[in-house]
Amino acid sequence: MSASPDVRVAPIVALLLAVAVLASACSGGGASPSLTAPPTAAPTTAATSPPTAAATSTPVASVTRATVRLALDWTPNTNHTGFFVAAANGWYDTAGIELAVLPYTGTSPETLLAAGQADCGISFQDALTFAVAAGAPIVSVMAILQHTAQEIAVLAAGDIERPRDLDGKTYGGFGYPNEEPTVRAVIQNDGGRGTFNVVTLNAAVYEALFSKQVDFAITFTAWEGIEATQRGIALRTFKFTDYGFPDFYQVVLACNTDWLLEHVDIARTFLAATVRGCEFAHEQPAEAAALLIAENLGVFDANPDLPRESAAFLAAQGLYVDVEGRVGRQTTAQWAGYSGFLYDKGLLVDGNGRPLTAPPDYAALYTNAYLP
Fold it and tell me: Considering the domain boundaries, does residue 58 fall inside one?
């Protein structure tokens, strides 16, 4: 989790602050969303290899346009590239979709979705798991980033060479309930005790490390890691998955389940265009970054190289695609891994704030039914 004003990505998302709102907006009780499989008709828009950025489609005049309200989790950044690529290339227009991007105002996308104030929104595996446990009628329809891009970071010039060296050190976090269990698990998996001090950060991770306010923190390598390099701050990082921690979906697209069931064809065409945009971002990161910047004039003026380098990193690391090279697809095994960790640590609570007494239905946290 970062204090940076530019991006909000982590398995530690400020969602539990909105649990009471979610519970009042939903049926509550920790039930999984009721989402049956949609009709099996073929998607309206086929998923094809993305054309070059210049090949913008022409809207079809006879298509009735439908608005899809998309809630962002922060200011535009490379986690959102696929949407802006699809918009810039006219793929939503061709599909008869009017994309209404709702700017982030401090209210989490999960809260807006639960209240019916957005149709779809940017979420994270942990955030969505927390929300569904609390009764929110939402489901993940697409993995935007297939793998975790978070790592534990320390200064490269220091004497911390592996996670077990973090015992007795000071961790800089943001006060979310899954931070400490995650870090502790990584340290213990490396043979350490998992004992450390905790302080709350009020600065970007790399700045807190550089000023030696803390010894270690969790960083998002595709953004903060790049910023640190740009500022000449050398970091040493430890990947969660290198130490027995389950991989997880860093970023997902969540939708309101009632909206999905009432708008099957719209959801499918929206997902087809969005998948196409993410395929483009994976295959042509430089062109995708240019479109992201062009679609958000002024947002990246202070550092236009950051989205370019971030886009290149996401593509090079294969974060958009699964082991079979597919965009968007999700599996129960990956949902059960990290979401199961959250349950095992007693972090999942129902709409009344009581810990769940049984694990959630991990297969109900996502659906591939609307993907092309």
Answer: no
**Residues 263, 169: one domain?**
no
DSSP string, 85-110: HHHHTTHHHHTTEEEEEEPP-SS-HH
Identity of the residue numbered 348: L
Check residue 260 and give its pLDDT: 98
Q: Are 153 and 206 in contact (CB under 8 A)?
A: yes
Asked if 194 and 168 touch (Cβ cutoff 8 Å), the reply is no
Quote the pLDDT of residue 151. Answer: 96
Does 26 reside within a domain? Answer: no
* CA dist., res. 226 & res. 307, Å (int): 9
pLDDT tens sequence across 85-133: 999 999 999 999 999 999 899 999 999 999 999 999 999 999 999 999 9
Helices (H), 284-321: 285-294, 305-316
Tens-digit pLDDT profile for residues 308-361: 999 999 999 999 999 999 999 999 999 999 999 999 999 999 999 999 999 999
CATH code assigned at 226: 3.40.190.10
CA distance 66 to 308: 32
Residue-number span of the structural domain to which 196 is assigned: 150-243
Check whether residue 213 and residue 327 sit in a common domain. Answer: no
The verdict on 158 and 296 lying in the same domain is no
